[in-house]
Design goal:
By secondary structure, the protein is of the alpha+beta class. It is built from 21 helices and 79 strands. The strands form 19 sheets. Strands 23, 25, 27, 29, 30 and 31 form a six-stranded mixed β-sheet that branches. Strands 33, 35, 37, 39, 40 and 45 form a six-stranded mixed β-sheet that branches. Strand 20 and strand 21 form a beta hairpin. Helix 4 runs antiparallel to helix 5.
């Protein structure tokens, strides 16, 4: 009732609000109607009053109408006024539009005036430039400027036309404005009257609204009084209801305590039984494990023994072979036929062995026949005794207990168990009478009975399995014992020598068969060949047919391998045939095929392996052969029909599925019906779909609770013998006979029929055939007869004995209650505290009369749960809905008590429906998970610290949801200086989730902040977060606090510009906000210094990084971003590249070595050596590389850098650079004293630096961007080509930076465009002008970045030295028509090879022009410039030199040989040899001189008497016979100047010298001539120059030596001889005699006689004179 009254009051208040809003809307509408634009007429007063105050009385309506008729004018007047107001409004709009238009027009007119002024100024400047260009005679500039002048004139004309048009339009608009102002003045009175009328109308409407509100308040008071009365009444009713409900709850709690007591006792008994069963199962499992371990140890020992015997046999065979070899050698030594004798001996041994084998087989066959006969006789006797002996008496145990104990014994694996006969013939006869089919209930044949009765064994029971050791499975098997004589001779384990021989033999066999495979230092391990498919599976085979399958073997090793078929296992050889042709050597990844043929002979599953042998080891492919089987299963193991009323009928479908390849016949029967079964299969073996718990529940249903349950676990065949004794004792205790032989026992078991058979039945199809891979659906029908729970058990039997019997259970509940709840569990899912949740509970009745229902809530939850209505009536055979309201309070955990779990927060509360005239109430349960709605902020308080007004501080806050439901949240009422992200502080948080929120604080001014942030959830709960901070106003500010660089290529540079501003010019805080920290004192005015602190290894450069800014000034800052690759990464890439190169070289070297040694070494040995060499090579190499420090300018480093730059994927870095601020100027510091920077007054510059791969890369020279021209000779040029590629996805326009015009580098082929993906070649030239190291940078500029090419080169001057001093080479005297040679050296002193060439002036093409001029002998000696002297008459050059051209390496020397070959006599042979470098530069000029004589003697010295140029006169030739007659005296002039120094001091004599020489010749001397003449040979031919042979020396003599001495001359020696190739000096000195007259020179002559091959006489004229000294 209270809720109803509250809802009623809420409805009243909302209705009142709606009426008030409606009145105000009517007022607004009327105001709109009074607008001039509204063209509709006003409503009449009566209609208006009826629309507004329709609920008032008639008298009040009349009075209101009368008042309105007095106050308001008539309708025509109102229409006229409305029309006038509309006109006035229209004029107002027109006036505003015209004013706006006039303002725009005036603005355009001003802009037009400005453009005209600008064009005029431009014309003036262009005219001045034209005049200047004409003066400078710059025609191109004048033409361009004249075109600009014409364009400006056209623009000026256009602007003037536009000005005239705008002026006219403005005049017209102003006239229109004047007309509008006149019309507005005429309508001024109308506007005032309209305003007065509007005020009156609004006042009237306000009065009406006030009256309406007063009426509504009176009605609201009346409603409130009624609501209070209803609340008091509902409170009284609720108290009575609480008292009644409390009494019911106390009764229910009392009954619940009694029930809990009995339940605990029952649960305790059940737990004790479960513990006992668990202990028994553990003991049983332990016994089985011990038996398995014992058998495993026995098998291992037998295998070891067998291996020993095999090794011993092998050694014995080796000894026998050695013995046979010795016998063979002995027979051969005796001269017999060893082969024939050994063959005869071997044949005899084979015959003896066959005889022994035949005899043993006969003995064994006889023994088997005798044993078989004895066993058959014993079996026959036992059978007779058993049939004649009476059945043993039954014990006190009931029939069901003994039957289940027998089944348990069979399942546990006992050898043979026979059920005893039931006591009394009456019981058996009675059972047979009641159940005629009970005679064949159970029939079992033990699997061990096959050995006892061979007559009942079929061929299907035979097995082909054989033991690993022959005879091991026989009962009479005894371990092999070594004969005594052998035991005495050798121990079982063998001697130490035998073990060593066996080990060596096995090692040799393994090494010969398999080899390790090592490739590139990696040894192959694993399966050498992969099989496809991995398993050879023959499914569902038939006996007699042939099946074939192909498999593919793939070589999975690293290199060539071989594959050989070993075979299949022993037990598969009769059925499996392998066709495999060995493919020979197979490369890695190659495959071969294997054909597997299977011909089944027995119906049995086979498993094994097909073994192969590879070069790296053996492997096998698994093989499996599966027979056809019946694999049957049920889709359900439990059919639960649920609750049904007695008399109804329903059905369910169960599906029997066969997934095997063999069909069988099936039959669905009840588990309680009698049946016949073969005990060779497990009786209780159920479907694979059943679990152990299902089986236990089935047993609980069949037997009574007081009977003991038995386990049906199958026993493993390994523990049969170990448990045989224990099982026999147990059988004797239970009263069962124990038999060692297999028997067939048929037991009849009868179960009385029950009502379940009538209520739960099967459909029409209960038996039939199920084919392979098919399914059968069988309906199960439930027809309840009596109320209660009904259980029934069914089984499915099959004709195939190998198929286990399948079981399934059926259960249902029959109900006869008239009232029930179809949904007994009301689940409200997850609920929050203090939130209302509702649900509807539906109640059904099958009664034919109406019933009264009373809904009750348990006492503990009455404050939280409510059922409405509390009482109701449900009509006959219908339904009734009751409303459930759940409002959990925070006191629910304490109030609910046992119904609420505090850990899981789960509420399970019982609700009761009391039905009239029914003792048992109807109940349902309320389920809910109650959770809190708390949100937790961590930390609870945030301190942002110090923050400047130009930055923001971000901190993380954790928001944790304690609820199990997602909640929406949002931070509301945030101050302007706080922001919360993501999603502005709004979102949804999942259950038990923690969200990280970013709280961003950015102060707006310098002060101390303290505030709270409020987070509200979707249910309007508030959670607070306390915050505090200190705002700072720094003295400096940045023009940009964030710089976003464009995407910059590697090794390119992007530059951004910003300013640091000092706006602090006054300390007066009233003018502007002064810099300060929080509430501290203001920062002083003055110069302020700053410093940027760059992070280490950042690709950022800031210039300047330190500076000072004066007040009111700003400082320009440039920030440069140049992305580079880390040096560590480049070094790593360089090391890897060097490693690869060295490995390739070592592999090549080893390959060459292997080819040479291939004939002497095997393939496996080579592989091992190769691996060892690689390991030896790589280990020191890595050490050397890591120790080596690659320089940044090395080729390896730059190649690695280019490789990484090409594969660079891009990178984005964000740097925050702090800028500290201090008061003062950096120049005022004393020495290195730092300024006092404040940590709070710090500015932060954020830099976004995206780096991308370069759009253009260098593809030549391993990507190195440095082009080194090397050493180039000065005056020459070098060419280098650089390939660049556009690796971007778009075409790029290319520009190049300007190289130094006076520099040595030149770009020969610039390009303008580089298409995407294409490569262009740039040709660069280096031409040094001087010896210098040159370097320049060529920038290739595109819109996506810049590629810098570094050009380096060295200009080297060509420097050579000559071994000839004075650059004159005198060849001396040579006999005409003979030659002489001389050598000299040129040394290359530069650092580059030099190309040289030698040229003679006599062979120069320009010499022919000089020969057309006057001869040189006609000119004065001062004017003679000809260096080419006398030449040969034959036209050939008299001088020759070799080599003529070549190349001199740096630091090397070149030898040159000059040959002098005159063909006639002359003393003035000369020529000039020029050394040219690079065919351009003249390096040296060497003067070549020589003289030729017809004879071997010559005289040199004296004053010249002729010119050095040969005359054009033909020199006559004389016959040698008349040579002496024509011989003339040859003059020699010797001038001697005696210098008179002082009269007191004697002067030295005047001296001169003459040289007499003998030329070395190739003609033979007379001493050697006789030795060369042989007998019979002709005489030596006479020389053309003499009739006698050439003498060995030259003799000379000077006549008149005595007379010369009298005249003061002294000549020494006056005679003598000169050997070949030697010269002798004749010294001439003169002292003036006493009677010498200085005024008259002394002239004396003497004859000089030379005798050699000819005689020559020279007339020497001595002229002596005295001269005074200086």
């Amino acid at each position: 009732m209270l809720a109803y009254s509250l809802r009623r009051s809420f409805w009243t208040m909302s209705h009142f609000r709606k009426m008030v809003i409606k009145v105000f809307s009517q007022i607004t509408e009327r105001e709109d109607l009074e607008d001039p634009e509204y063209e509709a007429e006003f409503l009449p007063p009566e209609a208006a009053n009826s629309a507004d105050l329709g609920y008032c009385c008639p008298q009040r309506k009349q009075s209101t109408d009368a008042d309105k008729s007095k106050k308001r004018p008539a309708v025509p007047d109102r229409l006229k006024a409305c029309h006038l107001r509309k006109t006035w409004s229209h004029l107002e709009k027109l006036r505003e539009e015209k004013e706006l238009f006039i303002q725009k027009t005036r603005g355009e007119l001003r802009a037009c005036h400005q453009r005209i002024d600008s064009i005029t100024k431009q014309q003036a400047s262009v005219a001045a430039e034209v005049a200047a260009g004409k003066e400078a005679n710059n025609t191109a500039a004048v033409g361009r400027l004249q075109a600009v002048s014409r364009r400006l004139c056209m623009e000026l004309d256009n602007e003037r036309d536009m000005q005239s048009k705008i002026t006219a339009l403005l005049q017209k608009s102003e006239n229109t404005m004047w007309h509008l102002a006149i019309q507005e003045g005429q309508l001024e009175d109308v506007r005032k009257s309209a305003q007065e009328e509007e005020v009156t109308s609004r006042k009237y409407l306000r009065e009406q609204v006030a009256k309406q509100l007063h009426k509504e308040e009176e009605a609201s008071e009346k409603i409130k009084r009624n609501r209070l009365l209803r609340v008091r009444k509902s409170m009284c009713l609720q108290k009575d209801h609480v008292l009644r409900h409390q009494k019911l709850v106390e009764d229910a709690q009392k009954n619940h305590r009694i029930a809990v007591k009995f339940l605990k006792a029952s649960l305790r008994r059940i737990r004790e039984q479960e513990k006992e069963e668990e202990m028994k199962s553990r003991e049983h499992m332990k016994r089985r494990m011990d038996a398995v371990l014992a058998l495993k140890n026995s098998i291992t020992a037998n295998r070891e023994t067998l291996r020993k015997f095999q090794a011993w046999s092998q050694a014995k065979a080796d000894l026998a072979e050695q013995k046979a070899q010795a016998e063979k050698e002995m027979i051969l030594a005796q001269g017999g036929d060893a082969f024939k004798q050994l063959f005869h001996q071997r044949r005899c041994e084979e015959l003896e062995a066959q005889n022994r084998t035949f005899k043993e087989e006969q003995k064994l066959r006889k023994q088997e026949i005798i044993n078989q006969i004895l066993k058959e006789e014993a079996e026959e006797e036992k059978r007779k005794k058993k049939q004649s002996s009476p059945a043993p008496a039954m014990g006190q145990a009931p029939l069901r207990e003994k039957t289940w104990s027998y089944i348990t014994d069979i399942c546990e694996g006992r050898d043979a168990v026979a059920l005893p006969s039931f006591p009394g013939d009456k019981l058996q006869d009675g059972d047979r009478a009641e159940h005629p089919k009970a005679s064949q209930f159970l029939e079992a044949i033990s699997s061990e009975s096959i050995q006892g009765d061979l007559r009942n064994v079929s061929w299907e029971d035979d097995t082909l399995a054989e033991p690993e050791i022959p005879g091991l499975w026989k009962e009479d098997y005894k371990p092999y014992q070594v004969p005594k004589e052998e035991a005495d001779r050798k121990p079982v384990d063998g001697t130490k020598m035998d073990k060593d021989i066996l080990a060596r033999t096995m090692e040799q066999l393994r090494s010969r068969v398999t080899h390790k495979q090592v490739v590139s230092g990696h040894e192959f391990k694993g399966r050498p060949f992969n099989s496809k498919p991995k398993l050879i599976h023959f499914k569902d085979f038939d006996i007699g047919k042939v099946y074939k399958k192909k498999i593919t073997l793939i070589n999975a090793t690293y290199t060539i391998n071989y594959c050989k078929l070993v075979g299949v296992e022993e037990h598969l050889r009769d059925f499996i045939h392998i066709d495999f042709d060995p493919p020979g050597p197979m490369s890695a990844g190659m495959s071969c095929e294997v054909l597997v043929t299977f011909k089944p002979m027995i119906n049995k599953d086979l498993e094994g392996n097909v073994s192969f042998l590879a070069q790296t080891g053996g492997f096998s492919v698994p093989l499996k052969c599966s027979t056809k089987k019946c694999t049957l299963s049920l889709d359900k193991e439990l059919i639960d029909f649920g609750s049904y009323v007695v008399g109804e009928t329903t059905s369910r479908i169960i599906t029997l599925t066969n997934i095997g390849g063999l069909g069988t016949r099936f039959k669905f029967v009840r588990a309680s019906e009698s049946y016949e079964m073969d005990l060779s299969q497990s009786v209780m073996k159920i479907s694979s779909l059943f679990t152990y718990e299902d089986k236990g529940s089935y047993e609980k249903i069949i037997i009574s609770p007081s009977e003991q349950q038995m386990e049906g676990n199958e026993s493993s065949p390994f523990d049969m013998q170990s448990q045989k004794k224990e099982l026999d004792n147990k059988e004797q205790e239970e009263g069962h006979p124990t038999e060692s032989e297999g028997v067939t026992v048929t037991t009849v078991m009868t179960i009385p029929p029950s009502e379940e058979q009538m209520e739960i039945s099967l459909g029409e199809v209960t038996e039939g055939e199920i084919g392979p891979f098919s399914s059968i659906k069988v309906p199960v029908i439930f027809t309840p007869v009596t109320p209660g729970t009904i259980h029934s058990m069914f089984k499915v039997m099959f004709k195939n004995q190998q198929c286990p019997t399948l079981y399934f259970r059926v259960m249902g509940v029959a109900m006869d209650v008239p009232v029930w709840v179809p949904k007994p569990n009301v689940d409200l899912k997850i609920c929050m505290y203090d939130r209302l949740y509702q649900d509807s509970v539906l109640v059904h009745t099958r009664s034919k009369a109406a019933l009264r229902l009373k809904f009750e809530v348990c006492k503990e939850l009455r404050e939280h749960v409510e059922l409405l209505p509390e009482t109701g009536y449900i009509q006959a055979q219908s339904s009734y809905a009751v409303q459930l309201k759940f409002l959990p309070r925070h006191s629910l955990p304490e109030d609910a008590g046992k119904y609420f779990d505090k850990e899981s927060r789960v509420l399970e509360a019982p609700m009761t429906i009391q039905v009239a005239d029914q003792i048992k109430p109807v109940g349902f349960t309320l389920h809910a998970v109650v959770t809190t709605s708390d949100l937790q902020l961590s930390p609870s308080a945030v301190d942002f610290g110090y923050c400047t007004i130009y930055e923001a501080i971000r901190t993380q806050v954790s928001l944790y949801n304690h609820s199990l439901l997602p909640q929406g949240f949002g931070f509301v009422g945030l101050p302007k200086f706080v922001d919360i992200q993501p999603n502005d502080g709004f979102g949804t948080i999942l259950p038990l989730e923690t969200l990280q929120l970013d709280v961003i604080f950015q102060p707006t001014k310098a002060k101390e902040y303290s505030f709270e942030l409020i987070c509200k959830s979707e249910i309007n709960r508030s959670f607070k977060l306390a915050c505090r901070a200190v705002g700072i106003h720094p003295p400096l500010e940045l023009s940009h606090y964030q710089v976003k660089f464009a995407a910059t290529s590697l090794y390119d540079t992007s530059v951004a510009t910003l300013y640091i501003i000092n706006s602090h010019v006054s300390i007066n805080s009233l003018i502007h906000s002064v810099p300060r920290i929080g509430s501290e004192d203001a920062f002083p005015v003055g110069p302020t210094s700053f410093e940027f602190l760059l992070p280490p290894d950042a690709p950022i450069t800031i210039s300047p990084s330190v500076g000072t800014v004066s007040p009111g000034k700003r400082c320009l800052i440039q920030v440069a971003f140049r992305p580079v690759l880390p040096s560590e990464l480049i070094l790593q890439e360089a090391f890897q590249a060097l490693n690869k190169q060295v490995e390739v070289k070592s592999v090549r070297k080893d390959t060459v070595t292997q080819r040479k040694d291939l004939r002497r070494q095997s393939f496996s040995t080579l592989r091992l050596q190769n691996r060892d060499r690689l390991l030896r090579t790589s280990t020191p190499l890595n050490t050397e590389l890591h120790e080596q420090d690659l320089k940044s300018n090395s080729d390896e480093y730059q190649a690695a850098q280019a490789t990484l730059a090409r594969s660079f994927q891009g990178k984005f870095d964000k740097f925050v650079v702090p800028c500290v601020v201090a008061h003062g100027d950096t120049k005022d510091r004393k020495g290195t004293e730092p300024l006092s920077f404040s940590p709070h007054n710090t500015l932060y510059l954020e830099l976004w630096c995206p780096a991308v791969a370069p759009s253009i890369v260098v593809t030549s020279n391993k990507g190195i961007t440095t082009t080194n021209f090397g050493d180039i000779a000065v005056g020459h040029h070098g060419i280098r080509k650089v390939s660049i590629q556009n690796i971007s996805s778009e075409d790029l326009a290319v520009e190049f930076s300007v190289l130094n015009p006076n520099g040595p580098f030149i770009l020969l082929n610039p390009i303008s465009k580089l298409p995407a993906g294409e490569t262009q070649i740039l040709t660069l030239s280096f031409s040094p002008h001087e010896s210098v190291l040159a370097q320049e940078t060529l920038d290739i500029i595109t819109k996506r970045g810049t590629l810098s090419l570094t050009l380096t080169g060295t200009g080297v001057a060509s420097m050579i030295t000559c071994s000839i001093e004075g650059d004159v080479l005198d060849m001396g005297y040579v006999i005409a028509r003979e030659s002489v040679s001389s050598s000299f050296k040129l040394q290359n002193c530069s650092a580059l090879p030099i190309k040289f060439s030698l040229q003679l002036d006599s062979l120069s093409p320009s010499r022919s022009k000089g020969q057309q001029q006057l001869p040189q002998f006609l000119t004065s000696p001062a004017q003679r410039t000809e260096v080419v002297g006398t030449q040969n008459h034959s036209g050939q050059s008299v001088f020759s030199v070799i080599p003529v051209k070549g190349i001199m390496d740096p630091g090397k020397a070149q030898d040159f040989t000059v040959t002098f070959s005159p063909d006639h006599e002359s003393l003035y042979f000369s020529d000039r040899l020029q050394v040219m470098l690079f065919e351009k530069k003249l390096s040296h000029q060497i003067l070549l001189k020589g003289a030729a004589r017809e004879h071997m003697m010559f005289v040199e010295g004296g004053d010249p008497l002729d010119v050095p140029v040969e005359s054009l006169t033909v020199i006559p030739t004389y016959d040698p016979e008349h040579r002496e007659e024509a011989e003339e005296l040859k003059p020699i002039l010797v001038t001697l100047d005696y210098i008179q120094l002082d009269t007191d001091t004697p002067a030295p004599p005047a001296t001169r010298e003459l040289q007499v020489g003998c030329i070395r010749t190739t003609q033979l001397s007379p001493k050697k001539l006789p030795d060369l003449l042989l007998p019979g040979s002709c005489a030596w031919p006479a020389s053309p120059t003499s009739s006698s042979s050439v003498p060995q020396s030259v003799e000379f003599s000077l006549d008149s030596s005595t007379s010369l001495q009298h005249k003061g001359f002294t000549i020494e020696p006056s005679r003598g001889s000169v050997e070949r190739g030697q010269t002798k000096t004749i010294s001439i000195s003169w002292m003036p005699p006493a009677d010498f007259d200085p005024d008259h020179p002394l002239m004396v002559s003497a004859l000089l006689h030379l005798k050699g091959d000819v005689k020559e006489t020279y007339k020497v004229l001595f002229v002596a004179q005295v001269v005074t000294g200086p």
